[in-house]
Amino acid sequence: MDDLLQNKEWHSVSYNHVLENLNTSSKGLNSTEAGKLLKMVGPNILHRQNRESAFKILLRQFLNPLIYVLLAAAILAITMGKITDGIVVFSVIIINAIIGFVQEYQAGKTIQGLLQLIPENATVIRDGKQKNIRAAELVPGDYVLLQAGDKVSADMRLTFVKNMQCNESILTGESLPVEKNTDIIDADAGVADRKNMVFSGTLITSGTAEGVVVLTGINTEIGKISALLQTTTSVKSPLTKSLEKIARGITYAIILVGILVFLIGIFRNYTFIDAIFFAITLAVAAIPEGLPAVITIASAIGIIRMAKRQAIIRHLYAVETLGSTTVICSDKTGTLTLNEMTVQVLWNGKQKFNVTGVGINTDGEILKNDSGEEGNEEEIGELIRAAALCNDATLHKKEGHWKSVGDPTEVALIAVAGKFGINEDELRNKWPRLDELPFDSAKKIMATLHQSPSEEKIIYLKGAPESVIPLLLNSEKSLMSFDTEQVRMEALQLAGTGMRVLAFACRKVDSKHSALIMEEDLCEFTFLGIQAMSDPPRLEVKEAIDSCHNAGITVKMITGDHPATAAAIGRELGFMNAERVITGKELQNLNTQELQEIVKNTNIFARVSPEDKLNLVKALQANGEVVAMTGDGVNDAPALKRADIGVAMGITGTAVAKEAADMILADDNFESIKAAVEEGRRVFDNLLKSIVFLLPTSIGLGLVIFIAVLFFPSEGGILLIPMQPVQVLWINLITAVALSLPLALEAMEPDVMNRPPRKPNKPLLSSLIIFRMILVSLVMAGGTIGLFLWEYNIELSMGMAHSQAISEAQTMAVTAMVLFQVFYLIDCRSLNFSVNKIGLFSNPFIYIGIATVLFVQAAFVYFPFMNRWFHSSPLKAEAWGVSAMVAFSILIIISLEKWIRRKYFKNIKT
User: Fold this and answer.
1) 746-795, pLDDT tens digit by residue?
2) 713 phi, psi to nearest 5 deg
3) 3-class secondary-structure state, position 619
4) What are the residue numbers of the active site?
5) Which keywords appear in this protein's UniProt record, sorted alphabetically (predicted)?
6) Contact 283, 258 (CB under 8 A)
7) Are 163 and 436 within 8 A, CB to CB?
8) What is the mean pLDDT of the chain?
9) Taking a C-beta distance cutoff of 8 angstroms, is the pair 573, 778 a contact?
10) 868 contacts: CB under 8 Å, gap ≥ 6
11) What separation, in Å, do the N-terminal and C-terminal C-alpha atoms of the chain show?
């Protein structure tokens, strides 16, 4: 039994063979056998991995090298009696941990969504009787009865089928319901082609069937997806990787320099406590405590902007990843297309008519292909009427929205009738249906008998062209001349473009004819024409794809649909190399290296399985691509989770797809992905500006402390240090955050979608940026130390007490460093251009940030409680003036550096 459960080829043998191998029959299992099997194979449920506890997630927020250094600094500060300093450092750690915890706690619900796809009950034959049992109790060998509206509860081999269709889009991505049968199918057929089976979680849309359960629980197709989701790991964003490298570098540097400072202090005869104090101060100075907060808040601002453009971000890191995307792998159905069948072409045997408007609505016209005039009653009236009458679907507008009931193909026929001015309810009242032959999947036709307003009886016929053509009058007897071969060729030509083609015919019968359709009535029909339909591309998608191509982003289609359909959509939307289509069957014959080579030049993949989608994403990532993957079905979930950025559909997407994704499109529109990429690039640009603004401050502060340890004496038993640890934190966290946040609100660069994506392996900080940061750090450190010594010596010369002179000099040093940041902020608004180029007032938030910082710095200087907390002292007005003059030098120096680079090094960019 175990070997059979792993067999993937139930579709390739007769159902009698399946029944025999599973020791069952149409009378089902007996309850005793079923009970034994249930113990052996386990319940028909999808097991869910235990979610990580909230405590574990919170604990992980502290597993960061920079946090280790800060924790050590805080503990040492408290040990040395500097309680306020230690509490401030601890506060910084706790704030960052809370932000990270809230981000991560949202994930982990994906498998729960899969559980909801399995129905609670199933109708089976057991002990020779029909019973309703819990779906969890199904076992291989159970004989199950299915009917329209049922959700399938296990993978089954069908043994009897009557006009049954099944919606398998959650597994295959194919928008149309699949006709089922009991025929034997090739062993290597993919899931979408196994028409003699039904799969757990799919929906029976019409007809009835019987089948034998062959696979349950984790062994079903949906179970395999569940297993893939549990073993698939998410990848880190490019920014996260870059920041981790920077964090490691900063940590190692801080530890080494901290040890060096400690040793220098001992060498210079500082007490052990004083040497430790200097090392702590250096650590606090060099760590950019404000950086995690800035990245989080800047990303959150990007999330708000994206939401306004219909892109809802679930994870903060996804904002930046979008800006680095190099490949977008898009599902076809519902993303590139509407997932609403639409009639596009009519042919009456002589002339073609194009149908305008898309989707399930009656907006549009039917125009002659040659003249553009509207089709009239004589030319297409009978064809459209036949399609509306030989039809069981309905389409109505309710509360401003179109609602449909029935097969998508039939709904499309009703919609085109509405475009011709026909209301199906009124038509059906005038032409009452007397009898019908329901659609037969074997004969591929449907026929209905109607009584016309003039009391005539007419049979309308629709079906596949190859099934309708043999039932037509020969051209000599027909009132309307047509060529059977021409009909066949026209149907083939339309089908070759990826459209679904239906032929229509009618036959008038004697008014005394019975109100029933007899078998002998299915002959000598008059040909009325053809209607060809497809799931049309969204109107705005082509422009969005062109925009992505201009931005250096490759767009690939990965779909479970038919290769011809995928190729047709690809050509229409302007996919590069659209003629080349690779199927899932071909992919499965490739090794890892061959797959990585194939994905470089192939942009359309069809008839792919969930494993294929996942492997394609992995292959692209192995090639160094940053991959965005879109999808809406359960079959897309593993690839969505693995991709650098998973994008789910908000309207048509399953709960599973949404939980596996990083971003949800509120309008299911590819255009919104392009908009999100724009915003992602803007966020990255602005985050880089924030990082380039923050890091020199920390480096500059570290230099201030290091130089003080190397050269400054200890005066009167008091350490001569330009800033105390708590003052350093004030600069790094409060002022740095308030000043860098406005950079996150800078406008989008004009060339944002006309430049290639940032290479994933490219360092976050280029050599030019590093040079600039070193220059800024040196200027800030030199200016701050110079002002500290200047103020300290002036106050001493005026007879001020040594401790008070140090306090005022430290306050002036802090003020100078804050003003350096104010002027440097203006330079950071663009890394390449002058302030005049981007507009002095194009971002008013910059000036709000500056005003806020100046206000709180004034509080730092003059408010008594701030003086107590931060060991600061009030300053005279001239001290502010001197500090501002020195700090202004940074604006001049960096503006000059930009000008020199633009003039003499034009090809070098940050």
Assistant:
1) 877 777 787 788 776 777 777 888 888 889 999 999 999 999 989 888 88
2) -85, 175
3) helix
4) 331
5) ATP-binding, Cell membrane, Membrane, Nucleotide-binding, Translocase, Transmembrane, Transmembrane helix
6) yes
7) no
8) 82
9) no
10) none
11) 64
